[in-house]
Amino acid sequence: AFEGLAEKLSNSFKKLKSKGKLSDADVKEAMREVRLALLEADVNYKVAKEFTNKVTERAVGSEVMESLTPGQMVVKIVNEELTGLMGGSEERLKMPAHPPAVIMMCGLQGAGKTTHAAKLAYQLKSQGHRPLLVAGDIYRPAAIKQLQVVAEKAGAPVFEKGTQDPVITAREAVKHARDYGNDYVIIDTAGRLQIDEPLMEELRRIKAEVEPTDILLVVDAMTGQEAVNVAKTFDELLDITGVILTKLDGDTRGGAALSVKAVTGKPIKFAGTGEKLSDLEVFHPDRMASRILGMGDVLSLIEDAQLKLDEKAAAKTAERLMNNKLDLNDMLEQFNQVRKMGPIKGILSKLPGIGNKVDDMEIDDRVLDRNAAIILSMTKYERSHPDVLDASRKRRIAAGCGMKVEDVNRLLNQFKQTQKLMKQFGGKGKRRRMPMNLP
Ligand code: GDP
Ligand code: MG
Predict the structure, then answer these.
(1) pTM listed for this prediction
(2) ipTM at complex level
(3) For residue 415, what are the domain limits?
(4) Which residues of the sequence carry a binding annotation for GTP (predicted)?
């Protein structure tokens, strides 16, 4: 999920970050692109518009524009607003005043209610709880059987009363849980293809009967905006306490994840990411936001690398490295490869976990160019046999590239260090002692 959105955002931000100073027009243009990307990811129209307006408002005409890295600052604001859009921080299940906690699952047919009732039971069990599953879908003949099968995998008991009125079954299940020490009751309910009055009436009656601690609406992320409409209707009729967004492992464009909270005011508490019982995650808005933003950057980094790195040259260097044959030609090749990918800060900032921390780093791209120039001033033979370089040759080389002899020596020392390191790691399986400087 989210790849398309992530890539589009990443492209817009690349443009922003490449600019030293930003004008109001630059920000507005970027936000226009962000809005389009959000709409294409199936984010609700109003949500997308309000989102970009908010980011623009915070960015334009403030100290952001005067900062040293305005592009990065705008991305930071987007990250914060994206997190806020999805609810800020994660929301867990509510704690009841008296156990058991009663969780009522609801939603349309096929959304994943039964699967996620079992996933929840499985997760609760792993945390040391004693969940009881309740079969409240009595209309589809195979529904009870399906719940029993997944419940057995989860290692949780099922309370079922055949086709008895699910309202009564729910009441009896809660009493059963009290008597047998189950601290969570998870009620699976029936769904329909469409929201209709008899379904809602039944859910309202179950709600009134057992007063659930949590009413979790299960929605299928693949249905995009429709998922959000469904959430809105269910919330108006049942006052849900949260959402489980399922099938996020699929090919969804992610719009539902971004709009549900904004449209309904109710948080996404869990995300379903597969058909297995363990494929249930607590929904973390901040992680989701960094995933959408960070992933885009990583994707574009990989693309860059694939475009620009010459694979054959890299393989050759690796082989020479294994055989302890590294020379200055290889070093030159490395400099060139890195140079092709653009400014080093740009490369680093795309790596997960580094991001805008590079703003505080002192990195001078010219070092690479200077070192490359020194090597280029040597003859081919000298590059593969740097030991032959004597004082007069070093002076000539320094003069040739407009640098000092110290610079040449520094590069040669750096190379020797690298070579030494390679020797220690190399030797193909032979164990070597680290050299020790004992007095
Ligand atoms: P219900 O009608 O709401 O009870 O839906 P089910 O729990 O029966 O699920 C319907 C289908 O969706 C089943 O085939 C599930 O295996 C599948 N499913 C449920 N959740 C997920 C999920 O998070 N990811 C994927 N890939 N499939 C899911
Ligand atoms: Mg079901």
Answers:
(1) 0.70
(2) 0.99
(3) 309-425
(4) 107-114, 188-192, 246-249
